[in-house]
Amino acid sequence: MVHIITDSAADLTVQQAGEPGVTVIPMGVLFDDGTFVRDGVDLTRDGFFAKMAAGQKLPLTSQPSLREFLEPFRAVQAAGDEAVAIFVSSDFSGTCQGARMAAMECEGAGIHIVDSGTATQGEGLLVREALRLRGQGLGAAAIAERLEALKARVRILAVVDSLKHLHKGGRLPAAVALAGSALGIRPVVGVAGGRITLADKARGRPGAYVALFRQLEKCGVDPAFGCALLYSDDRRAVLPIQRYVCDTLHIFDACTVQVGAAIGTHIGPGAAGIAFVAKE
């Protein structure tokens, strides 16, 4: 059997995480009051945003420990199976490096590590594709090879209330954060190839949605891979994107996903976006 292993930064839905052979390794989150939780295990996603709002400082996120990688890797090895392990971009976290170290300790286990170059449901799209390819009978090595080719086309676009969370969390340079922080401006951030960029900006939230749609038109969305709609603390924020996806792109089966603590720490409240595969 080919196992699919990922981290909680992928923000999988309950259905995706419940697929046979799927394992999600939780990231860690430390709040300013000293509370440590495992992302997606010890606190609901709504509970995380409520606790973050009540704090004075941003939470700190941490990658899984070596032991947390070794447990599923050794289970795969003991079963005589193989695995494709898809993790958050190495540009955002040391998770992928930790996974590679664990895989080295399980020499010959057939663990194929894929640095997704993205996060949240960008990772989720790769997990979904891995499951599809597994269903076609492909082995772990062939699946990993396909994902390596596909990941360059994975994109995330999101409207955020501000760039302060991304800047304070070290995910965005100060100059970029300053460029999108003018009074009344709503930034549109993009994630592609392990980079977070200020993709566009507009005055007011309605204008930011239009700017996001403009960026989608530039990229083009490959309907063969579907897409995922993302929000942080308020599901209503994603409704304009949902309408656009249905009315303009004619994609009617997009899943809607609330981001978890690992990603929510860095994008903050009020965010809404879309993960998709760009057209070739």
How would you sum up this structure, described in words?
- The chain has a 6-stranded mixed sheet.
- The chain has helices at residues 14-17, 45-54, 66-79, 95-105, 120-135, 140-150, 164-168, 174-179, 204-219, 239-247, 261-267, and strands at residues 2-7, 22-25, 28-30, 36-38, 60-62, 82-87, 111-115, 154-159, 185-192, 195-203, 227-231, 255-258, 272-277.
- Helix 3 (66-79) crosses helix 4 (95-105) and helix 5 (120-135) packs across helix 6 (140-150).
- Residues 175-180 have low confidence and may be disordered.
- The radius of gyration is 18 Å and the shape is globular.
- The protein contains 11 helices and 13 strands.
- By secondary structure, the protein is of the alpha/beta class.
- The protein folds into 2 domains: 2-27 and 63-152, Dihydroxyacetone kinase, domain 1 (Rossmann fold, 3-Layer(aba) Sandwich); 153-277, 2-Layer Sandwich (Hypothetical Protein Tm841, Chain: A,domain 3).
- The longest helix is centred in the middle third of the chain and has 16 residues, at 120-135.
- A hairpin with a 5-residue loop joins strand 3 and strand 4.
- The two termini are 31 Å apart.
- 46% of the residues are buried.
Overall outline: globular
Classify the secondary structure makeup into a structural class. Answer: alpha/beta
Q: In terms of quaternary structure, what is this? A: single chain
Radius of gyration: 18 Å
What are the main properties of this structure?
alpha/beta; Rossmann fold; Hypothetical Protein Tm841, Chain: A,domain 3
What is this entry, summarized?
Helix content is 39%, strand content 24%.
